[in-house]
Design a protein that fits this description.
This protein has 112 residues and is α+β, with helices and mostly antiparallel strands. The chain contains 5 helices and 5 strands, in the order ααββαβαββα. α1 packs antiparallel against α2.
């Protein structure tokens, strides 16, 4: 998720220093309220907005800004990960099928 957000910031010209600050902020926040968080930037500064009022206040400045809805990025990453095939740890064999159980889950079920 962080890499997707970094890529979007880089594509819009945000400086690496500001991207590092934003990433550090995300890590410090943990996973709480990511669904409602939007990262906004005017190209020079990155802001966290967690309500429509905060977004509106930034827009009142009259300068161009863009936003990244963190919850949407999170769902995109989850969706992409759910499409990946499982893989055996010992042989590297790819587990294919409609919904393969991962090897760890199979081992847990055998142990019980």
């Amino acid at each position: 998720m962080v890499l997707k957000i970094v890529k979007r910031f880089l594509d819009t010209g945000v400086s690496l220093q500001n991207i590092r600050t934003a990433v550090q902020h995300l890590r410090e926040r943990g996973f709480s309220d990511l669904e409602r968080m939007t990262l906004m930037s005017d190209g020079a500064t990155v802001y966290e907005c967690s309500s429509p009022d905060e977004v509106h206040a930034l827009l009142q400045g009259g300068q161009g800004i863009f936003g990244i809805a963190v919850g949407v990025v999170w769902r995109d990453v989850e969706s992409a990960l759910s499409q990946l095939h499982g893989e055996r740890v010992d042989t590297g064999e790819t587990l294919v099928g409609p919904n393969p159980a991962d090897e760890l889950a199979r081992r847990r079920n055998r142990a019980v």
